[in-house]
Fold these 3 entries.
Entry 1:
Amino acid sequence: MWSCIRRNSLWQSCLCTHHNWISLPWCHFPLVESYTCTKCTGNACQSKPETCEASQGCFNNKQQFSPPDGSPKLMQTKGCSQKACTPLAFSATLGRGQILGYDMKCCYHENCNQGNSELSPVSKEENGVVCPACFSENGMICIPQPLKCTGSLTANLSPTGVTGGNPPSIVSAMGCTTESACKLGTIELNYELEFDCVKPISGSPLLTPIISSTLTSLLLLKVLL
């Protein structure tokens, strides 16, 4: 049952059914149907997921940070979108051999985000694009070195910002990324980074369009601490 609508400046109550529109002698209005999404973070997604009610989409977000000399660190989050859900996937190879993977999936029906989200592997085949690359934490100076990009990584990503923690960690990085990373917009997760995609050092003009938009994103990088 929904509460609805105004008739001659008086509020009336309408008994509604699950249709896109309800038309009664005294009311005519759109309905927004809700559905249940899986809600969890980290290991709870495998053991004790909860649920939430959504009307703008369920999301399934996975992020993976892979240092060159250690095991990949993974974070998965599922839940209900508070605004229109925007799907997005990108990969990035940063300085010091750090690899970042990100995948946001959206769906719009009952418990549609229960499944596992897989990140695409980064190709090792060089594509002719060269970008400056570096990686630093705790406010250290990020000194870029040329990095040969691979696969579909044809844009130069330069994220800087502050991750969570006490005290917080200041992170600076540069590297190769897919162009989709330059379209992050605002993602409401936990930690704030500013992304700037710029022209690579060199590469085919067909593969390296100049991208000069500065984007602010909330990106979960607790693994950097």
Note: The chain has a mean pLDDT of 72.
Entry 2:
Amino acid sequence: MSTFGEISEPNSRTTWEDWDDEIPDSNGNILQWHKPLLIPEKVDALFVLEGKYLSDCIRLQHNNYIELINTVLEANLLLFEIKSSNRYVCTIKDYKLLQSSEIVELLKPIIIKSKDVITIQTKPLTEYQTDHVTSQPLVLKKLNTAASSKPHQTWNLNFPKLEQPNIMCGVNAGVICLRDHFDLPASALVYYIEHSEEYQTDEIQKLLEHLKIVQNCNSHPNSILNSNLYI
């Protein structure tokens, strides 16, 4: 049974928006793994990385360090195993937001079995809401589950808490909610950056290396920001 229920609209609602119309999937595809998802008995950590820049960092890692073990191509979801460890990395980008709960359900077995879960995503700095004027090119915020405050958490992630009215949505929000529902530790890290997510950011690279998700992240995505091409 699905952990995430359906949204029921009140009968008294009179306004009908464009997105209320049910648009059937022309392909009729149901999201599923390319092959059966085999999860070992022991999973030390699961890292869920959302966004093009983070996905490129993982994709460019050497095969001797990290191995692609499964995919959900319809959602641009890739699942990797860090070799010689019990740690896994999931990357996702350019997916339909309405498919978030379905994607989380696919990840549910490994989400629940993991000893710890950390999600990381990048968002435009313009989306960060605060009463204080900031000139920083990057703002990093963190959101924990209740269980993450317990002493057994091993990650040294001393970052400020994500404050209201800032919110999380999508797959990473679903992952954190699921862990909190089962009273399991998890941390969500949100990078608000000035440029697009394809822009090379040293702080993000340092974090990925600190968590031993990557050996190095010298990715240079093909974008105008990283070229001398002018139109």
Note: Residues 221-231 have pLDDT under 50 and may be disordered.
Entry 3:
Amino acid sequence: MLKKSIVAMLLAAALAGGAQAQLKYVEGADYTTLTAPVTEAKAGQVINFFWYGCGHCYAMEPSLQKWLGDGKDASIDFIRIPAFTGNWEGGARLFYVVRELGMAVPEMDEKIFDAVHKDGKRGIIFDKGAALKFLVENGAKQEDVEKAWKSLAVQQKLNQARDLFNASQLDGVPGFIVDGKYVIAADNNYPRLFDKLNTLATKNTAKKEEAKPADATPTEEAKADEVKIEEAKPAGAKTEEAKPAAEEKPAETKPAA
């Protein structure tokens, strides 16, 4: 009888601990849930919206890269998308051109951030000529940069980035979307922020693992910044010919406080 009582007590403690873990972050206070998911997301997907010109994004970058290196749960697929709104198109295009050219990531992201915030070269995220010169100075060939800048592949990704950011309902950057529906606005408490991302992103992957057939083969972990934007395709999106960016530019989004 005593043995059964001990087992019951241990089981109750475990259940209480699980319930407490589920309440670690509260909807409405720590994150919001979109009524319509922005992507056809698989469990464990984390999207980071940012802008090279954002001071908060620049301040968070070292901590973000550290989390990606040794703090991110192995089951998480991390996707980075440049916020595309108003006059931020130049920075978003630069982001995708760097990847279209096969330049080193995240090293080039760090160089762009430093150029903008330390060296006063903000023109590279607004002016095509300044951006092309910067890329050539960092090892790219002029003709390759010109081709990538106006490529269909880059334009398609820009269109998708714009649609995703608009659907996210974020009013600033940096910001995160987990599993296509949990919206997290970043703050300066980086340890708590990244723990929140791990907690929400693994909430559904745990259920997925429990339901996986015995002979199923786990997919390889997607590398940070190498996941293609197609994996973050807007929910219900149809494949269509790339459309040019809208000429009318909405008001610039203010960085998150």
Note: The CA atoms of residues 3 and 9 lie 10 Å apart.
